[in-house]
What does this fold into?
Amino acid sequence: MPDSKAAPEQPGSGGARATLLSLRGVGKVFSNGVTALSGVDMAIREGDFVSLLGPSGCGKSTALRLIAGLSTPTSGAIERPGAAGNDTVGFVFQEPTLLPWASVFDNVWLPLRLRGVPRAKAAPAVMEMLARVHLERFAAAVPRELSGGMKMRVSIARALVTKPRVLLMDEPFAALDEITRFKLNDDLLDLWQDQRFTVVFVTHSVFESVFLSTRIVVMAARPGRVFRELAVEAPFPRNETFRTSPAYVALCRRTSEVLAGAINSTAGAGHGGH
Amino acid sequence: MAAIEHPARPLDAEEARRVRRERLERVGKWLLPLLIMVLAIWLWDRICVWNGIPKYILPRPGVVVQTLYSDAGLLFSSLLVTLKITFLSLLLAVVGGVGLAVLFAQSKWVEMSFFPFAVVLQVTPIVAIFPLINIYVDNQTAKLLLCAWIVAFFPVLSNTTLGLNSVDRNLRDLFRLNGASRWQELWHLRLPAAMPSSAG
It folds into this structure.
């Protein structure tokens, strides 16, 4: 893979980047006795696009909730040297999770509204975000009038309207068809390169994680743990050319092999979650 | 719709049947209930005639209509009183039911403590409570209001409570992540989410 030797850095980031948040020996045991996570070490650096990849039940969503501060670890610690806390986090759920009674504009306004920003004052930021996700003409529409992909765009606009430093995404495109998913992948990378936030992206798709990430954290189940970290050494911008390149295929194959190892490492466990 | 009524190409047998059925259903939705109503009134009239029921036991529908017309003045003022009681008690039920539901939504403990009382109040037949109300309450309007309120209040309370608690978990997480206060969550999320279920 001669063409994949390029530095994994995204444009403009020179040298070592500051650690934004790190998980140190993080474990989570639920009250029903299930060990969701055990001894997870992970460092997210400024400007990273990190995918958490693994089979269901490997605790990747739990890890995301812990990073978001929606849940607290049973053991270990999450350090946020580069972030002030919740205020710098944007979250995109698996479903669009929009307010069904509110317009697209009002949905994107919501995070600012909850921070006390009045409508008129929020309007420029909201409209800018809507333009960034190509929905400026749909500001007055309500969610039920939109397609699945458009709803997810609104959800992304809402997560980014507060200009968070970290964007957390929990299998955001899993329910979308492939064509829509590719388009949203492209748009997400554009946004990421443009606005320089850090992404932690939960997925169970090898192809998606390789296409998007600078780094993939492969996780294994029972108990949920980090199996291996992979650097995705392919330059940005990544586009349709990358998606069909031999380098991409090779990276996918390598990642699939590691994922297969992670799945096999779950001793004697069948499929099926909780 | 126009595309169905005037197809560009001839419909196959199955599609034609479907179109015919849809058209019939559209008409039937209005016509059938009307027909049943007319039939019921006719039957009522016939039963009175066949059994020779005197009109002070069960008047024939014609007599009812006639009386509605001839005693309109008296009946209309009574109707106003009934309507006033109905709407006033509905208003009180909505205010009380939504208010209490909001209180319940603030604290699981409050809900657990008081909800069973509301259920007991609901399942006790109004005829069982009325004699007591009759003794304790002097004012005639207040008496009626109280009865109507007891009946109307519970559905509002239980539906609103259900609606307030049925909010999508992810949306609540979203509010938490954005540092929403309890009041903001209630106003921007729980109340709008509860609206259709208390109205329905």
